[in-house]
Amino acid sequence: MTAIRISHRLLLLQSAVLAGALLSPAPVSAMPEAKAETASGGGSADATNSAEDIVVYAPIADAQALALAEQRSATNLVAIIAADSIGRFPDQNSAAALARLPAVAVQRDQGQERYIQVRGAPNRWTSVSFDGVPVVGVDEGGATRAFRFDAVPSVILSSIAVNKSLTPDLPAEAIVAQIDMRTFSPFEREGFDLSADVGLGWMELGGGEQRQASVRTSWSGDRWGFMLAGSHYRRNQITDNRESAYDANGLPTVLDYRSYLLVRENNGASAGVEFRPTDGHSLFVKGVWSEFRDDEERNQYVFQLDRAASGTRGAVSGDLVGVPVRGTKSYSNYRNANWILTGGGNHAFAGQWSAGWRLNYTRVDNSSDLPIVLQNQQFNRLNRPSLTYDRSNVDLPIMQLFTTIPGATPGSFARGSATRGLNQAGFDLNIGLPLVSDIRAESWTAKVDVEGPAGPVTLRAGLQYDDRIIRGNVLASAVTITIPPPGLPAGNYVTTRP
Asked: Which residues contact 352 (CB under 8 A, 6 or more apart)?
């Protein structure tokens, strides 16, 4: 009889946004292999009764099973998402991946995931660690220690654990939850392993380009292992907001038109070396770098309907003369970057005792450059536009602008001819606010953990030392410049770009 054993490895194909491809060859030791053995005395009956065994490996199912087993055996309430589960979805950052776990809510900015809230608590009440080492976050503006998850690409992570109940071996600075982001070990894949993905798409908001690419490769032998990973994500987006305010009678007092033109990037890299001198002992060095870049042009016009010189103001439509307009313009740059370097070891001893130690240096940089120009129409009422509005569709109100001309009686005003845009020179009060923030947080951490059985109980003990320095300034105005007319007519800065 001839017995044939064939091993198949299923590969996950993933797409990024609209189009993509994944290159993920199986490790050398797990490549499909066929082996045939022929027994003596074979014949036609043996050929008819030949057996074939097919073994199918499902990495995604295996990863999920390991995550579930870790959750069930944990001494606390924990939720774990594995790397292969993360790879099933086009999540460009760790916040998007965490949003898929129960009891985890996500805060978004311009539709992109940024902060994490566990069980509805404020985001600053959740502490974050990389490979068990605490990392201090720096919020936008530098006012709090909330960690920005949009700066950490999900592709450089092996798994994410959300500890919803705290135990003595977790950092005491965690008030509600502790999130541990675990990086890859080269020994997670035998031999050589390479996975990559590339994607290209277009944003529904504005039709801008959206692209992403990542690659991760590793090699492991009997004692040594190496790992290298990198990722890039970029989106070009236009966001239009239409907001209203109302008085006690339900009539609109304000129509707020906002337009955001933004380009955002997430970049990340990770590298690691691991050495296993003997069974049960390992030494490693890992480095992680990640950054978030956000360049935004913000344009806002607020039409103050309740301060019009005359006209009718209804809940659905209106016809108003001399409506004051308040404008806000800015071109802002936001940056957030993380440098994390960790060395450590894990050791198993006789009697089921184990120990682990970590040495870590972490640096987090957060900067905001927010130059704002505030515009207002304070002096000449003829500079204020007249308008009609139709709010039949509250999500997309329609407004027609007109000039304002002197009325039939002295001191009165009337609607003039139709116009296609606001008179930029009509803003006779301009205020410049160069808001800036630049924060750098550095930390040095050393920790040792020991665990082992003592009769029917398991003993855990640990020691941790932290030294942290945070320098810089929170979001503040360096100088305020008030320019009376005609010092800075905004019309001089109107471009031909639509």
From this structure: 452, 453
3-state SS of 284-351 is EEEEEEEEEEEEEEEEEEEEEHHHCCEEEECCCEEEEECCCEEEEEEEEEEEEEEEEEEEEEEEECHH
- The residues, any chain, with a CB within 8 Å of residue 115's CB and separated by 6 or more, are 95, 106, 107, 123, 146, 147, 148, 149
Instruction: Quote the CA–CA distance of 293 and 332 in Å, as a whole number.
Output: 11
Specify burial of residue 217 (Cβ count, 10 A radius: 0-12, 13-18, 19+): middle
Separation CA 489–CA 425 (nearest Å): 5
Write the single-letter amino acid at 386.
Answer: S
Distance separating alpha carbons of residues 160 and 405, to the nearest angstrom: 64
pLDDT of residue 319: 96
Unique residue bearing structure tokens 């300034």: 473
The SS3 call for residue 323 is: coil
Report the pLDDT averaged over residues 80-109: 75
Q: Is 48 helix (H, G, I), strand (E, B) or coil?
A: helix
Mean pLDDT in residue range 419-434: 86
Euclidean distance between CA atoms 57 and 280, whole angstroms: 27
Amino acid at 220: S
Beta bridge partners of 440: 365, 471
Strand pairing class (252-275; 224-246): antiparallel
* Spatial strand order in the sheet of 398-406: 310-313, 317-321, 386-390, 398-406, 413-419
303 touches 397 (CB < 8 A): no
Lowest mean pLDDT among 146-155, 217-226, 256-265: 146-155
In eight-state DSSP terms, residue 59 is: H
Per domain, the residue ranges of the chain are 4-57, 59-493
Query: Which range has the worst mean pLDDT, 84-98, 125-139, 459-473?
Result: 84-98
Residue that is written with structure tokens 């304000």 in the block: 254
Alpha carbon separation from 206 to 108, 238, 316 (Å, rounded): 18, 5, 28
Greatest C-alpha distance within the chain: 119
Residues 405, 322: Cα–Cα separation, whole Å: 9
- Looking at residue 5, its pLDDT comes to 28
